[in-house]
């Protein structure tokens, strides 16, 4: 039952926001009593913590599956961006923005957890792109990884509209890729930008 509550709460938090959803809402959606939820979670903050952990795990499992498909480095980044777009497409308000605004301590824990995971993914992508000839060989990988991370997550935490956040994140991906790209990388980037915007 605990896992079912986490799964349903995670789904509702992503769709409607961490602040908007109450324990009553979750209980009503699951057709259980609020008392049942409190049996496993003494307060909403604990449920949010467990839910963000579950969401984090789900996201990185999907990212791992995308990486395992062996796309080229630029295509890989666009596939990951597509995954985020699909996952958050039903949200009007940014869940990350709500988390930062209303539950700052949990937000800080989430961001700390994301640093290691995302930095590793970004770094591996840059190394792959260099090997494939899409990114320049003289890149300072550590700096570019850090730049991209800070740009992406500063937008997520400071933009209240999910639609606006996704638009800016795509622009950041383009900016990040152009800064690293070789001529063949630019051609690959333009192809994916065209496909992404026409879908």
Automatic annotation (TrEMBL):
It holds the Pfam family TetR_N. Residues 22-41 bind DNA. GO terms for molecular function: DNA binding. PROSITE patterns: HTH_TETR_2. The keyword Glycosyltransferase does not apply. InterPro entries: Homeodomain-like_sf, HTH-type_Tx_Regulator, HTH_TetR. Residues 1-59 form the HTH tetR-type domain. Keywords: DNA-binding. The keyword Repressor does not apply. This is TetR/AcrR family transcriptional regulator. It comes from Flavobacterium bomense. The lineage of its organism: Bacteria, Pseudomonadati, Bacteroidota, Flavobacteriia, Flavobacteriales.
């Amino acid at each position: 039952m605990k896992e079912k509550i986490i799964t349903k709460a995670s789904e509702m938090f992503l769709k409607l926001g961490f602040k908007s959803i109450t324990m009553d809402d979750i209980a009503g959606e699951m057709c259980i009593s609020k008392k049942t939820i409190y049996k496993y979670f003494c307060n909403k903050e604990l449920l949010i913590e467990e839910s963000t952990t579950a969401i984090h795990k789900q996201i990185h499992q999907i990212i791992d599956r995308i990486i395992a498909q062996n796309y080229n480095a630029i295509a890989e980044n666009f596939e990951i961006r597509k995954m985020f777009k699909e996952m958050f497409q039903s949200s009007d308000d940014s869940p990350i923005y709500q988390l930062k605004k209303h539950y700052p301590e949990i937000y800080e824990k989430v961001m700390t957890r994301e640093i290691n995971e995302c930095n590793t993914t970004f770094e591996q992508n840059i190394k792959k792109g260099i090997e494939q000839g899409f990114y320049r060989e003289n890149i300072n990988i550590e700096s570019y990884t850090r730049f991209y991370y800070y740009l992406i997550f500063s937008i997520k935490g400071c933009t209240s509209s999910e639609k606006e956040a996704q638009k800016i994140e795509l622009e950041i991906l383009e900016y990040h890729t152009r800064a690293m790209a070789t001529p063949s990388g630019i051609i690959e980037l333009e192809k994916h930008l065209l496909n992404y915007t026409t879908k």
